Amino acid sequence: MPPRPTPGGTSGTGKRSRKAGFWRVVRKRIFQVLLVLIFLPPVLTVIYSVVPPVSTLMIGRYVQFLWVDRQWVPLGEISPNLIKSVITSEDSGFCENHGVEWDALQDQVEALSDGEKPRGASTLTMQTAKNLFLWGDRSYFRKALELPLAVMINAILSKKRVLEIYLNIAEWGEGVFGAEAAAQAWFGKPARDLTRTEAARLATALPNPLARNPAKPAPGHRRLAATNLARVNAAGPIFGCVLGK
To answer: 83-137 pLDDT, tens per residue?
Structure first.
């Protein structure tokens, strides 16, 4: 008679083998996902150097069958008034930094460690990275992801292209994306014809685009726009990388 299998013998070995095989497959899949997450943003960024991209927020609205108004226009068809107001309002060091303002970021980390509420410190390139690849909810994890993405975008794209992308995917109202759609929605004119005041109102609406109406700004919004106009006038040569000297 053939010997009976002993408890924990062949049967136990088979179970361990199947379990080991399962975890090998899991590790392989995790490794593949990580490779995609690492290499997809650079590949997409190279594509975005010539192809107009959409933001993750726009994709989210498309998936939900919500209305989206975005009309891509080249940077040359956007008023220099808006370019100056946005750079002054959002990232005055845009032409000089490498995608991240490390000094400003360090100041915010120190403020956080001192128990203070940190402010902004996001560059236009970081905001572009967030809009292209990340999500809208604020968190330190998302902010940490923005840093390498911003450095990568700055290394691959020109300053003009970064700003062109940003101004064409920024949200300026419910379902309103980009400077052209915003200019048409709020002022009934193309983005190239925006006045200094209109540009300042659009730029200062960016931190809270769903609550601020550039066409009929609240008193606080008017004050922000007036401050922006004054800062643009006193800014000096900070727009050279996109508007020339």
So the answer is: 999 999 999 999 999 999 887 776 666 555 545 555 556 899 999 999 999 987 7
DSSP letter, residue 171: B
Tokens of 239: 């727009």
Across all residues in the chain, what is the average pLDDT? Answer: 88
In this structure, the chain runs to a length of: 245
Element (H, E) at 198: helix 196-203
CATH architecture of residue range(s) 52-243: Orthogonal Bundle (1.10)
pLDDT of amino acid 79: 98
pTM for this prediction: 0.84
Buried b (16+ CB within 10 A) or exposed e, 35-65: eeeeeebeeebeebeeeebbbebbeebeeee
Domain boundaries, the chain: 20-51, 52-243
2, pLDDT greater than 60: no
Q: Which long-range contacts (CB under 8 A, 24 or more apart) does 51-58 make?
A: 52/165, 52/168, 53/132, 53/165, 53/169, 54/169, 55/131, 55/132, 55/169, 55/171, 55/177, 56/131, 56/132, 56/133, 56/134, 56/135, 56/136, 57/131, 57/136, 57/171, 57/177, 58/169, 58/177
CA–CA dist 75, 90 (Å, integer):
17
